[in-house]
């Protein structure tokens, strides 16, 4: 049955009292309303862009319902665990959810998400949505979430470091070139190599950049074909091995994450770094000019450069990682139509503009990149790079069993100091096959 979109009541603007919307309770029960029975929709968000998302909750509340923010844990793994527990219990108070794209297939396959149909489906996913983001919300030919913001990684670097190393950044560069350039000048290469999801993001991007994949035929579920033991898998492992042996690793290499990678770009002494990291980096450094851990002054900030994600192998186009947030609606919500209407509102072009300008969380819609607000907030070539990377990037395996796939890869590729092209891809393939077949435990 098509869920036709009702006429939207007038929106209330967030002028004051934002904090009053946030419900502190972590219980399964919904926040109680103050309007004589008017329903309150619970929206579970991750910690990124909290202030902007709280304002959007107020703006998208109507005369028929209110939206209340509920905060999820910081890590993607803990977010998945909390939401899965609620949905497996058929919790009727889980209305809206901010989902890492890799959660969508699992949750949709389990029957935990309500599909968008009819006019709502057309509004959620039209030709304006960038391809990389569009792929994350579909499962078995249905649309199960609304793309809110899209994320990708680019190569951030000190222009002075690249120049001193003689590395031409005007065209594509490879991981080998980046590592050699950093090592030759006493710089570092910042990555995310702790045993967590972002490490798999790096591994997956390099394998895809070499023309391969971790798994194929994911629609077969547990019977998916494991393909990580391939020439592409070996090329990815060779990059990790080279970086580990290069002298260009950061001190916390084996436990590095998105935040710790930032600190070496503008050290008090030394040439700085090359770093692969998400879109938030520009706003982070712009906001810390003259402060601890940031550029010393505007002149040093101008030394920050950016380029497309490095190639795994020469001549093969890179596949930048795809991330972001999709808005899903709980299948057991008591206010399903209201929740889907609200999901459309909080992922609108206007909402995406606010998230990009305020928080560095970039749009999933191509048209928003041309808005005056974004053109003023970001350099034009950086916007073009973000949009291009999202549109042509590579998603992580789209599988209902992605959690097991990711954990299995992490267990055999960590520590990065022990990665060996001759053994790691094969060992991880054997273990992943055993996990999917139910013959091994994580």
UniProtKB/TrEMBL annotation:
Pfam families associated with the record: SBP_bac_1
PROSITE patterns hit by this protein: PROKAR_LIPOPROTEIN (PS51257)
Cross-referenced InterPro entries: Bact_solute-bd_prot1, SBP
Signal peptide per UniProt: 1-30
Source superkingdom: Bacteria
Protein keywords: Signal, Transport
Family: Belongs to the bacterial solute-binding protein 1 family.
PANTHER family xref list: ABC TRANSPORTER PERIPLASMIC-BINDING PROTEIN YCJN-RELATED, ARABINOSE-BINDING PROTEIN-RELATED
Protein name as it appears in the record: Extracellular solute-binding protein
């Amino acid at each position: 049955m098509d869920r036709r979109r009702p006429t939207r009541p007038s929106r209330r603007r967030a002028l004051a009292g934002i904090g009053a919307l946030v419900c502190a309770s972590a219980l399964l029960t919904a926040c109680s309303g103050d309007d004589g029975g008017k329903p309150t929709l619970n929206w579970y968000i991750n910690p990124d862009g909290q202030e902007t998302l709280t304002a959007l909750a107020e703006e998208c509340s109507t005369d028929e319902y209110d939206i209340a923010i509920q905060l999820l844990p910081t890590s993607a793994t803990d977010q998945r665990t909390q939401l899965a527990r609620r949905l497996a219990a058929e919790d009727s108070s889980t209305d809206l959810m901010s989902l890492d794209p890799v959660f969508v297939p699992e949750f949709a396959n389990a029957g935990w998400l309500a599909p968008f149909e009819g006019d709502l489906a057309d509004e959620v996913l039209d030709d304006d949505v960038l391809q990389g983001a569009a792929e994350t919300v579909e499962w078995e030919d249905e649309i199960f979430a609304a793309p809110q913001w899209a994320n990708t990684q680019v190569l951030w670097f000190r222009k002075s470091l690249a120049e001193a190393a003689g590395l031409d950044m005007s065209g594509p560069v490879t991981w080998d070139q980046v590592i050699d350039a950093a090592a030759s000048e006493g710089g570092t290469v910042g990555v995310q190599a702790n045993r967590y999801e972002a490490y798999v993001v790096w591994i997956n991007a390099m394998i895809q950049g070499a023309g391969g994949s971790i798994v194929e035929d994911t629609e077969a579920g547990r019977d998916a074909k494991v393909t990580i033991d391939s020439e592409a898998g070996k090329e990815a492992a060779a990059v990790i091995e080279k970086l580990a042996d290069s002298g260009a690793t950061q001190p916390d290499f084996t436990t590095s994450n998105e935040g710790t990678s930032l600190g070496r770009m503008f050290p008090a002494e030394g040439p700085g770094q090359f770093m692969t990291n998400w879109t938030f980096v520009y706003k982070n450094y712009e906001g810390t000019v003259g402060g601890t851990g940031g550029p010393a002054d505007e002149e040093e900030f101008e030394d920050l450069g950016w380029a497309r994600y490095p190639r795994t192998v020469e001549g093969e186009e890179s596949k930048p990682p795809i991330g972001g947030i999709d808005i899903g609606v709980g299948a057991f919500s008591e206010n399903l139509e209201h929740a889907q209407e609200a999901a459309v509102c909080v992922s609108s072009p206007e909402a995406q503009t606010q998230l990009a300008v305020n928080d560095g969380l970039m749009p999933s819609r191509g048209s928003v990149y041309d808005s005056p607000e974004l053109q003023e907030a970001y350099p034009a070539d950086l916007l073009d790079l973000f949009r291009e990377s999202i549109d042509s990037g590579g998603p992580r395996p789209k599988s209902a069993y992605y959690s097991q796939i990711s954990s299995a890869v992490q267990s055999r590729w960590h520590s990065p100091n022990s990665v060996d092209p001759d053994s790691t891809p094969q060992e991880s393939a054997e273990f992943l096959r055993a996990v999917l077949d139910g013959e091994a435990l994580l």
